[in-house]
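Weekly modeling sync, notes
Attendees: AB, CL, MP (scribe)

Item 1: holo prediction request
CL wants a bound-state model with adenosine-5'-diphosphate before deciding which constructs to order. AB pointed out that an apo prediction alone won't tell us much about the pocket. Agreed to run with the ligand included and paste results into these notes for async review.

Input as submitted:
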Amino acid sequence: MKRFIFLGPPGAGKGTQAVQLSEGAAIAHISTGDILRAAVKAQTPLGMKADDYMSRGDLVPDSLVLNLVKERLAEADAQEGWILDGFPRNAAQAASLDDLLGAIGQTSDCTVNFEVPDDVLVQRLLQRGRKDDTEAVIRHRLGVYREQTAPLIDFYQSRQKLVSIDGNTDVATVASSLRAFIH
Ligand code: ADP
């Protein structure tokens, strides 16, 4: 397997695992959050449009995110495989991803769902202390996740392409359960 969608709430550890797996497997790590934060920092047109949404903990408009994923999937390293980390995040993005992959003749091999209880997520994010990691914004992001993103678990499960792993343990243990599933 070489094409993965990482699903899970904010703070579940998707990014940490994605970095390790992408390095080990020499595939692209595509984090929409990282790309958007870099755009905000560089004050590009994309970043200027995304900034307010991100500070509030709302999803950035689908069209903006879709465009950046499309461009990123066209880059050389992504031809070897990829991990989508933080995308898709709602039903419309999932449908658009199907279209996008169809157009380039690819499919995802597997969706990995990271499971972590809410109280643990809040503690982890408060410790991380990013700009959007204040308690109020964290709670809002968890609400957005529950309403808009969590339904994708059933969507990918119905395609029999979903594995759920326990993210409420240390980084090395999560990494080894991940390897066991996706070897
Ligand atoms: P976390 O997993 O901690 O929520 P991310 O880095 O994945 O962090 O996302 C941070 C913010 O970036 C989100 O709250 C949202 O505003 C924006 N974002 C990231 N990915 C998407 C996406 N696929 N669609 C819309 N907005 C996104």
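Recorded for review: The beta strands are 3-7, 28-31, 82-85, 110-115, 162-166.
Action items: CL to compare against the apo run; MP to circulate these notes.
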